[in-house]
Amino acid sequence: MSGGLILLFDVDDTLLDFAKSERRSIILTLRRFGLPETEEIVAAYSEINLACWKLLEDNKITRKQLDRLRFDILFERFGITGADSVAAGACYRKELSSSAYVIRGCRAMLARLAATDRLFIVTNGAEATQLKRLKKAGLDGFFEKIFYSETVGYAKPYRQFFDFVEAEIDGWDRSRAVLIGDSLTSDIAGAAGAGITSVWFNRFGADRGSARPDFEARGYAELEEILSKLRRKTG
Length: 235
Ligand SMILES: [Mg+2]
What we know:
- By secondary structure, the protein is α/β, with parallel strands linked by helices.
- Helices cover 51% and strands 11% of the residues.
- The termini are close together.
- Magnesium ion binds at residues 10, 12-14, 181-183.
């Protein structure tokens, strides 16, 4: 496949609309446990969840601890007593694993890219959850291999995660590899540490702060333009 790239795609908020899935899952979990479904609680959960994921990225907690910790914090903040955070965590994860909304234009883009490039997934999600969601979205068939941090034993941005990915991809060629992701701390920092070209998928026009992605795409059209240029460059 002359000129083809090795594309490493993040999943949430790069291919799938995570915010939409998260919102649906937390509302269904609150309902199931008879808790108030207020906008305030939903927003707080989203913020707590993000903070907990940062702890996981820093290897300060395990994936299993994350499941209950976010509900421990949420229940404490809103003075909810007597609710089982382990059961709530399991319920949320079950709802999330059955929820997948493809970002508009994603499937068509992947179909075009698959004609020239080799496609892989690099995700910090759990295998059971992410595979189910990718299948539900009808995206799993585009990818040669899917790498889950839970299975690898390290999360993005850790170098060990990327060492594993490089070792597991036949014909790995770093000069043809491109990582596409929305997270500056896990995707872009991870790619930089591993010497892999990065495209920051910045759908909402966020500020990049001090991060230095190699490229930035505001949508799939821009992403495809960048990849076309890289394909010509690598020949
Ligand atoms: Mg993401």
